[in-house]
Specification:
Elements lengths: L7 H21 L9 H15 L3 E2 L12 E4 L2 E3 L13 E10 L2 E10 L5 H20 L6 H14 L3 E2 L5 E3 L6 E5 L16 E4 L2 E3 L5 E3 L7 E3 L5 E3 L2 E6 L2 E4 L10
Antiparallel strand pairs: 1-4, 2-4, 3-12, 4-5, 6-10, 7-8, 9-14, 10-13, 11-12, 14-15
Bound molecules: 2-amino-4-trifluoromethylsulfanyl-butyric acid and cobalt (II) ion (2 copies).
Length: 257
C-alpha cells in the first residue's frame, strides 16, 4: 500500500475520530493525580471511549497489546502498559490515546506532570512539545517529509536533548499505522512530498540523555531509554490542506495551534 489521499467523506470521519481522541485526553486530565494507578487511568479511558463515545480503543489487542491506552512514565519512551504502580510526586507521564470511530483512527498523546517535577524534567516536557509544534508549522502541500524530521531533530539538539530514531509517526486512516513513516530526524528535501488530503501523525520522543532505547524482553512492548534518562512525547493527527495543516486532535487548551 502506498500513501492514501483521503476523500471528502473520509476527511469528515478523520475529523470525528480526531476530535474524540482529543476529548478523551481532556476527559482524563483531572484524574491524573498523585496516587492513582495507570491501570485506573486505563479503565476510566476505556469506559469513556466505549460507553460515552461509542468508539473503540485502538490499542486493545493491537498486535496483542493488552490495554486500551499507553501510559509511559519517566524513563519509559513509549508503549508503556498500564499497571498497578501508583503515579508519584515529580513523575512525568505520557498518555497516548487512539480511538476508532466509523472505521477511522484518531491518535494523540500529551505529557502530564505530577506536582512539580525537577526543572530539567519540566524543560524536557516543554522542549518535546515545541518540537512537535515546529514540525506541525512546516506542514503544507509541496514540502518533503524529511524537512519535518530535520527541523525536529535540529530543534531538540539545540536544547541538548536527543530524539529517538527507532519509533516514528505514521500515516493514519482506516488503518492505525499506514504509510508513510514520519521520521523525527532526517535531511531537508528527502522523502515523500506532502499532498492535500494526506493524514499522518507527528509524535517526537525526546530523551534527556542519549537517544538509544531498549525494548523490554519480558512484555515485548515497553520501550525505555537505554541510559535510564527521562523521556517525553507529544502527538497529533494532522490533515494536509490546500492552505497548510489542520490539527485533527487539537485540544481546547491549545490556543497556540
Ligand atoms: N499510539 C501509538 C502510536 O502513536 C501506538 C500504540 S500501539 C500499542 O503510534 F499497541 F502499543 F497500543
Ligand atoms: Co501514533
Ligand atoms: Co499514539
Amino acid at each position: 500500500m502506498s500513501i492514501t489521499i483521503k476523500t471528502t467523506d473520509e476527511i469528515e470521519k478523520m475529523r470525528t475520530a480526531g476530535r474524540l481522541a482529543a476529548e478523551a485526553l481532556e476527559m482524563i486530565e483531572p484524574h491524573v493525580q498523585i496516587g492513582i494507578t495507570t491501570d485506573e487511568l486505563d479503565k476510566i479511558c476505556h469506559n469513556y471511549i466505549v460507553n460515552e463515545q461509542q468508539a473503540i480503543p485502538a490499542p486493545l489487542n493491537y498486535h496483542g497489546f493488552p490495554k486500551s491506552i499507553c501510559t509511559s512514565v519517566n524513563h519509559v519512551i513509549c508503549h508503556g502498559i498500564p499497571g498497578d504502580k501508583k503515579l508519584k510526586r515529580g513523575d512525568i507521564v505520557n498518555i497516548d490515546i487512539t480511538v476508532i470511530k466509523n472505521g477511522y483512527h484518531g491518535d494523540t498523546s500529551k505529557m502530564f506532570m505530577l506536582g512539580t517535577p525537577p526543572i530539567r524534567a519540566q524543560r524536557l516536557v516543554q522542549v518535546s512539545r515545541e518540537a512537535l509544534l515546529q514540525g506541525i508549522a512546516l506542514v503544507k502541500p509541496g514540502i518533503h517529509l524529511g524537512d519535518i524530521g530535520y527541523t525536529i531533530e535540529r530543534y531538540t539538539k539545540q536544547h541538548n536533548f536527543s530524539v529517538v530514531h527507532e519509533y516514528c509517526g505514521h500515516g493514519i486512516g482506516k488503518a492505525f499505522h499506514e504509510e508513510p513513516q514520519v521520521l523525527h530526524y532526517g535531511k531537508k528535501g528527502t522523502g515523500p512530498i506532502l499532498e492535500t488530503g494526506m493524514t499522518f501523525t507527528i509524535e517526537p520522543m525526546v530523551n534527556a540523555g542519549k537517544r538509544h532505547c531498549k525494548l523490554n524482553p519480558n512484555d515485548g512492548w515497553t520501550v525505555t531509554t537505554k541510559d535510564r534518562s527521562l523521556s517525553a512525547q507529544w502527538e497529533h493527527t494532522l490533515l494536509v490542506t490546500e492552505s497548510g495543516v489542520e490539527v485533527l486532535t487539537k485540544r481546547t487548551e491549545e490556543d497556540d495551534l
